[in-house]
Amino acid sequence: MVKPSSIKIVLLMRSFMGILSELDNLLEKIPLWKKLKSVPSEVEDLKRRVIELEKIINSKPGDKCPKCGDMTYRLDRTEPDPTFSDVGVNRNFYKCSSCGYATFNQQ
Ligand SMILES: [Zn+2]
Fold this sequence. Notes:
Blueprint: H1 4-28, H2 31-59, E1 73-80, E2 90-96, E3 102-106
Antiparallel strand pairs: 1-2, 2-3
The chain binds zinc ion.
């Protein structure tokens, strides 16, 4: 035999589920709610891009080339400065292994 209180609980649960369903339908009509639903996938996409960029940076431990932008610009060699070597000035030569851009500074 079913207790009357059990029937009340079942009816209350059905009403509650109906309210949740209506609430869900209402939220679907709100533009911001639709936008918020897309945020998790956008965050996942950004995480994936950060990981890809970290791999590129860590595999090429150079500086950013001022000409081509690759992370392959680094110190090539250091030589005594032809004009000021007698006062201890050196030249640091930098070169990009991607595009060949080269320059130097005095030290
Ligand atoms: Zn370059």
